[in-house]
Description:
Elements: E1 3-9, H1 12-31, E2 36-39, H2 44-50, H3 56-65, E3 68-73, H4 83-95, E4 100-106, E5 123-129, E6 139-142, E7 150-153, H5 159-175, E8 180-185, H6 191-206, E9 212-217, H7 218-227, E10 234-237, H8 239-252, E11 260-264, E12 270-274, H9 291-303, H10 307-322, H11 336-352
Parallel strand pairs: 1-2, 1-3, 3-12, 5-10, 8-9, 8-10
Antiparallel strand pairs: 4-5, 4-11, 6-7, 11-12
Helix pairs in contact: 1-9, 1-11, 5-6, 7-8, 9-10, 10-11
Bound molecules: adenosine-5'-triphosphate (ATP).
Amino acid sequence: MPRIALIPGDGIGKEVVREARRVLEVVSEAEKAGVACDELAYGAERFLRDGVTITDDEFAAIESEYDAVLLGALGDPRVPSNQHAKDILLGMRFRLDLYVNFRPCSLLAPELSPLSRDLSGLRLEIFRENTEGEYTGMGGSLRKHTADEVALEENIATRMGVERIVTAAFEYARAQRRTRVTLVDKSNVMRHVGGLWRRVFEEVGETFPEIERDAMYVDAMAMDLVRRPERYQVLVASNLFGDIISDLAAEITGGLGLAPSANIHPGKHALFEPVHGSAPDIAGTRTANPLGAIRCVGLLLDHLGHPEAGARVEAAAVASFQAGCRTPDLGGDASTEDVGTWIVEHLQSDYANG
Ligand code: ATP
């Protein structure tokens, strides 16, 4: 029986995971998939109360006892250092070596895009490298708080790290019958790291001859994603560039409230989380959009080997929007729970009708 660790976390994380859990349980029951969920109370409350973020034993348990993690969000104004979020989320990314950050951005309905053109059917899938780049913490400061201060933040790229994320992007494109993979970099300026990415991209790409490949500088890509996003399909990028372009892609396909993401070590571990943060400004108002978290359930089911169930969840998310059951960020007045209930009932009748 697959076991899922639920980490609701802070702020609206708790509210959206509550709805995602209901959806997961309904589908699990209908599919007789027997998914079991354990809720783990890691987050700001515990950190403030006990001074503990996550222990080595808890990391070990997540690694050995669970098939996947579903996380809400971490971040609380009472913890300005965000120490607990770094320990828990970055800890899992690094310890479980979750090197693929997969961010699918599909436009559920044309009116959800802030772009004025009709982009119906737009689907962008971003593969962001998740363990290297500027996010390893390598670097340091010299003569801090003086006029002569020096600060360094290293950009790490290993051949192994680049090769495995580029391979994951091409393998996904092949499996999904996508016809183009685009590398996003800045190799005209960052020649050492950029040169490695370009060489590996070419070498790996040659082994997928049926898939077209091209490369774009990140600044040009930012422009093109606004100008003609329909030109792109699967994008692969370093940690920093992937972070930036995936937020842009999320925004042009409806905004933060809708976007799911997966952190994966293929064949081993996976952690799913909505792209949005803990949104303290709306926590407790019952207005958080749960669709990002519910769409994570779709990705999770796919990951557990139930792609049809995953597709049903995605279809139910689209149907809730089309039926007008929308939270305020999408122009409606439904609560977080209303959307969850609508989707649960829709799935129940969907399964009842075969
Ligand atoms: P982080 O640094 O953790 O990403 P952040 O404050 O930069 O956090 P979010 O917490 O995602 O970003 O919030 C950004 C804004 O987007 C919030 O103020 C909120 O209004 C809005 N927002 C985020 N998620 C949702 C959601 N699920 N539903 C509705 N609005 C949301």
